[in-house]
Write a structure and sequence with these properties.
The protein is an alpha+beta fold. It contains 3 helices and 6 strands; from the N terminus they run ααββαββββ. It has a single domain (10-138), classed as Roll (Thiol Ester Dehydrase, Chain A).
Length: 141
């Protein structure tokens, strides 16, 4: 059974990211399951640090992006979710290719949600493990 309260396509989700940091870094949503969201991000000049490996900040952006979107999809139409804490453990470096992030729910509450986001490389090795807490607030825009 799906945990999502909003019905949107991958095309809709990717269009929502146009002209944002998400698009600038090349992040693309690739799958929405009943209780998870997946996205990919290239490891290239936009996401590498000066020493040629994936920047930890880019991993944090990917984690917050898919975790926040998961929160948004799991609340009523009059609500949105905003990040209040992100904890990211960078476990392995990667210098090229694509990384994949997957967000899975830890807890969905009325005012706070917690999401687990794991980022893997193309060999399915864990690169970064994150936990994102989001606050559920009234939609004002």
């Amino acid at each position: 059974m799906s945990i999502w309260k909003r019905n949107v396509s991958l095309a809709d989700l990717n269009a929502l990211s146009e002209n944002t940091l998400i698009a600038h870094l090349g992040i693309k949503y690739t799958e929405v399951g009943d209780d998870f969201i997946k996205a990919v991000m290239p490891v290239d000049h936009r996401t590498q640090q000066p020493f040629g490996v994936l920047h930890g900040g880019a991993s944090a952006v990917l984690s917050e992006t898919i975790g926040s979107l998961a929160g948004y999809l799991s609340v009523d139409e009059d609500k949105i979710c905003v990040g209040v804490e992100l904890n990211a453990s960078h476990l392995r470096s990667v210098a090229e290719g694509m990384v994949t992030g997957i967000a899975k729910v830890v807890r969905i509450g009325r005012s706070l949600q917690v999401w687990q986001i794991d980022i893997t490389d193309q060999a399915d090795r864990l690169i970064c493990s994150s936990r994102l807490t989001v606050s559920v607030i009234d939609k004002t825009i």
